[in-house]
Each structure stands twice: as structure tokens, then as C-alpha cells.
Amino acid sequence: MEIKTILYHGSSVSKTGLEQDQVRFERFLEHFIEHTPKWGTEALLILPDGKALLKPYYWTGMARISCMDTIAAVGARTDLSFSITKSLKAFESAGGYREKLRICAVYQPELMTLTKFLNQCQKLLKENISFSVGVFGSPENLDMIQELRRSLSSDIYLWIEPLSEISYPYSIEEEMEFRCIDPLFSQEWAYTSANKSQCLDRLFVESDGKLRLCVSCQYMEGNWNHLTDQFPAPVCGQSICSGYLAYGGRKDYQHAAVFGQYPMFRIPWKPKAYFLTADKVLFHNLEQEDSEFLLALKDRREDAPLFLITSLPYKEATRHYHTLLPICGGGIFAGGAHIVLNKKGRQPRREEILALDPSIIPILEEKQSEYGCRLRIFKNEDTIYRFTMEKPFSRMWRESEYEALMEFIPSRSFRCFIENNCFHIVPANANEKNGIKTISHWLSICPEDCVSLDNLS
Q1: Which residues pair with 104 in a beta bridge?
Q2: pTM exceeds cut of 0.70
Q3: Taking Cα atoms as reference points, which of 165, 159, 157, 221 lies closest to residue 188?
């Protein structure tokens, strides 16, 4: 059973106190870190008591979770009644990755003035934190909700949570007013027939360890603190999925694509970086600076930065891709051994070169005559980052030769690949995936927000 998304519901601080809430959360945290990698868990949404976020323990806990390679998103649903500066300081002091942090900010006019709430949102924007804003759809607050929409940046999604139809049936006019603000506003989904088969990849955990499929379901047998490989039988017990925390996590939620892989955060997904494997592009697309292909790339670059991926070393790439590289914000070169982020505005130039172990040079030199090739050593100052065993252009490397040479090259330290007449050797961790991960970290975005343009041509 795969549990892709977990929701954690914190204690009611007025009943348990902050100390007990911290103990419970830290117990949950240790179990989460130990067991979720084998469950396939990728996201955690925390529903804490508002008073608890005033303390650092949730922030340091989210930071620890963001450090997990298996986690893509972690965050909290909150009324923003905490110090953003102090909370982010606690998050970063614990090593947190900002690009994985998500905030669902719910505006409750009875708790905070609109001006103060908007100031808090502005701080999140300034700190480059991904967030959405939500409000309960009370018609008597329509003017305030419209003002909230006007005051927020157009990039921020404002979602409106429908009131229960039992307590308030919306008129057609009221529903249309709310849809003008939130195009996804609808009572239809709030009263979808329950179907537990659509909810088997998520889990709702109470602070005392009790388990449910979602916020509305009946409790299942077992307890979070004893959950390892055997999951309890799923139980629903509801006739309808009432509220976004119930229906928003269903596999068949029709608007899930709007929010990407983790719709529970209600943050619309959009590309934050584009990557193009230049070696796959037909050369005629790159001959002229005004080619249709390059113009299409420039259009995409208006939405998000563009990065080049190539097996060529950086200097060779600047010559070979002289029409393409100038419109890129950097790239992944030499098969992932050399990564570059260009300076742009206040963004500094970043560069990472993965060093190769030179101990195999004598072996490679000895094999030159056997395979009819020459050894090329690529260096940046004193750092060796790639070896290439290059044959004459008309002679290709055969699979049998590749396998024979690989017997002398330890795979723990090196990654090898053939490219026509060249046998390339780079560090074991030099590859496209890790290169994208590095650039994403420099840009404070998630790798999941990066899009390949390899099919553009």
C-alpha cells in the first residue's frame, strides 16, 4: 500500500497545552522520518492549533521533513497569526529547504484585520514562500472577499470554501459572485458520494495517533505510533465527502491537475524552470537566431528560466550552441559533471564541478592502444571532471568493448556512457537528475516544478 500524502492534525492546545502538543508532534515526526520512505510518502500537510505555530517546534519539525529526499512538499494550514520572520529563521536554522515549504493561509476576519493579514501575505511573497489564500464563503462577507482578491497579487490563488448546504443554501447569484473570484468554487464537489477506493493513497493522523482516511472518515483500527508495514483495513463510514480536506485528496478530484501532484495545499502548479537536452535538437533548428524553434524557446523563457543539458563540456558547448546558450540561464554540462547558474539581477552566479578520482588514469592510458582511442582529460583549473576515450570519428564503440572496459572501472565511483565514437567517464553522481536538483536548490524551487522541453521540436 502506498501512502502518497499524509495530513497531521495537531492537538487542541486549550485542552492539552503546548508542551503535550509538542511531545505528540515530535513522536509523530520520528515515526514519519523512520517509516514513510518505504511507504512512498511525498507530502505532509499539518493542521496545527493556531497558537502552536507561535512556537518553533512545528517549524523545526517541518525543516527536518523537508530534508528528506523522499519528500517534495511539507507545510501547514494556518491563519498567519505568527511571526513569519522568526518562524522562517527557526525553519532555516534546522536546515529546512524553502522550496519544499507550503502554506495554506486561511483568512478569518474575526481573528485578524484584513490589513494585517495582507501584510503577512506580502512577507511570504518577499520570502519567496509558496502559498495560497483561503476564506470561508459567507455571502455576508462578499465585499471583504472581493477586496481581499483585489489586494492580493494575481499570482496568488484565492480559494473559497463553501459553507454547508444544510446551514446555508447558496442562490444562483451568490454562487456566480463567488465563482468570479474563485473559478473552482462549487458546492457540487462538497457533496460527492463517498468512495473509499478513491482515498487509499492518503492518511489522516490525529495527534494521539488515531488514524483515518480523511478528516471526515471513521477511525480505523491501530495507531500511528505502531504503524510499520501492515496497514489497517480502510474504513470510511460517510455517505458524502464534505469539505475540501475530504474531497480534495481523492484520486478522481476533477481539478487535481490545476494543483499538480499535491492538491491538498491548493497552490496552483506552474513550471518554474525549463530544461532542454540540446544534444537531441536537430541542428537546423539552431542555425538561425530567428528560427521558429528558438523563437518558441524565447517565448517559454518569458514564463520561467531556461536551462541547457548537454554532454559537451562548457567551453565546447559555448561554441556548438552559440545561438542557444545566450538565451539560457545556465545549464548542466559534461554529462552532469559541471553545473552552472548564470548571474541575473540579484541572483549571483553559481557553479559546481564534480571532481573525478584520477586513480584510474594509468588504466585508461594503458587501454588506449588496445581500443584504438586516445584519452582526453577535461579539467577546470586543477579539478578533473571527465575522462573521454575518443576513437576516430568513423569508428563507433561496440557494446562488447564497453562491457570489457567497464570491468576495470568501479561503478561506485564512476558513471560511464557511450556517445558515438566516445566513451565518457564522469563521477558516479553526475547525471541529469542530480543536475536539475542542484539548479532547483539554487533557485529555491522544487525539481517537480521543472519541465522538460525535449518534445518542443
Answers
A1: 77, 132
A2: yes
A3: 165
